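Bumping with the actual sequence this time:
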Amino acid sequence: MRVCLAGFAVSATLSAAGAILETVSDRLHEMLVWLLGSLVQTTGPQLLVAAPLLTLGVCGLLILARDLNVLALGDKQAQYLGLNVAQRRLLTDTCHRQGLPS
């Protein structure tokens, strides 16, 4: 019980500190908005830099969509269905990381 209450206290304290920092710093607020997925403050040239990587990642994941459905059944089931699980996980991870901002 003490650990649970201590965790709650630490979480509340850090949450309050984060809220204070967000209200004090405009730059931190912009960063949090961007991390949540907003492209409002992104300029055209910035989007043009990211567009090829995003396109490559999305196309790769669309090609692997059927394999992702098989992987959702679990590793053993995917292996029984003839899927090379390690290879597909590596390809999926690579395509996924292409679409993430770095």
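The tokens above came from a reply further down the thread. Residues 1-41 form one domain.
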